[in-house]
Amino acid sequence: MFLPVFLYYFIFCYLPMPGILIAFKNFTPGHGVFGGDWVGLKWLDQFVHSRYFWRLLRNTFLLAFYPLVIGFSIPILFAICVVEIKNGLFKRFAQTVTYLPHFISTVVIAGMIINFLSPTDGIVNTFLASMGMAKINFMMAPEWFRSIFTASGIWQSFGFSSIIYIAAIMGIDQEMYDSGKIDGVNKFQEVWHLTLPSLKPTIVILFLLSIGGIMSVNFEKVYLLYNGATYETADVISTYVYRQGIESQNFGFATAVGLFNSIISFILVYVANQASRRVNDMSLW
């Protein structure tokens, strides 16, 4: 059962690692990974001193930070609410409805967002017009992009993300709850003093994993939703790498930018792991 997983990561994650050398070479197709002149940190220096550096870093961080801050607690709260539902039929209905968006293709999600926010016949602008308000061209307004990206991401993922918390809650010793009821705790006290402390190890591990992916913003969704008018708030490192590497065929520069992104991600997860170990005595390693 482990073999397919091992082969996937070995072929697609570990086997291509020698390609990192392209970040330090003047790479041209046909000469191979080990061909081309060695340029050292030229591409990285060029990126750091480019006019887009701080914009890309800011956008990448914010588009990952907002969903983490706003959306990280929602699956936990939803899991607690689902476990408390006594009606089995309604519980299964609520879980199914919230799980389904996770399985919808990113392309379809982006199409839905664009159609719903259309300035001509989108449902949102139709509602605004019916309320006597001016229509808004959301997809061409840079100030709206982060809100749209964050809200749609939370809607799409919170249900599926709650599964692991529901499983963790179901594994809590029920005798603790029985003891709490004997001591006269109310439902809020039960959640605050029994459920959440029992979920602490799961929450810490998932939070650390989320920190590790904070620089890996959903490339497909950003690419499908952004445009030239929203670059100021929407353009992230991964989309910039795509434009430089695939569209402009500047492979060495694009690889250096991607490597920079990976190094920042590693530093973030390492710092978060060390901080968690010192504060909570819990860590990934």
Describe this structure in words.
It contains 14 helices and 2 strands; from the N terminus they run H-E-E-H-H-H-H-H-H-H-H-H-H-H-H-H. The chain has a two-stranded antiparallel ribbon with strand order 1-2. The protein is mainly alpha-helical and 285 residues long. The mean pLDDT is 89. The radius of gyration is 23 Å and the shape is globular. The chain starts with a helix and ends in a 5-residue tail after the last helix. It has helices spanning 2-14, 42-48, 53-71, 73-84, 88-99, 106-116, 123-130, 142-170, 174-182, 187-212, 219-225, 231-234, 237-247, 251-280; strands at residues 25-26, 37-38. The chain crosses the membrane at residues 6-24, 61-85, 97-116, 153-172, 202-219, 251-272. It is a multi-pass membrane protein. InterPro entries: MetI-like, MetI-like_sf, UgpAE/MalFG_permease.
Fold blueprint:
Layout: H1 2-14, E1 25-26, E2 37-38, H2 42-48, H3 53-71, H4 73-84, H5 88-99, H6 106-116, H7 123-130, H8 142-170, H9 174-182, H10 187-212, H11 219-225, H12 231-234, H13 237-247, H14 251-280
Antiparallel strand pairs: 1-2
Keywords: Cell membrane, Membrane, Transmembrane, Transmembrane helix, Transport
Organism: Paenibacillus plantarum
Family: Belongs to the binding-protein-dependent transport system permease family.
Comma- or semicolon-separated keywords:
285 residues, mainly alpha, two-stranded antiparallel ribbon, 14 helices, 69% helix, transmembrane, MetI-like, MetI-like_sf, cell membrane, UgpAE/MalFG_permease
- Compute the gyration radius: what is it? 23 Å
Q: State the strand order across the main sheet.
A: 1-2
**Major beta sheet, specifics?**
2 strands, antiparallel
Strand content: under 5%
Which residue ranges are poorly predicted, with pLDDT under 50 across at least 5 consecutive positions?
none
Helix content: 55-70%
Structural class: mainly alpha
Instruction: Tell me, rounded to a whole number, the average pLDDT.
Output: 89
The CA-CA distance between the termini, in Å, is 25 Å
SS field, number of helical segments? 14
Q: What is the number of beta strands?
A: 2
Written as H for each helix and E for each strand, in order along the chain, the element string is: HEEHHHHHHHHHHHHH
Shape: globular
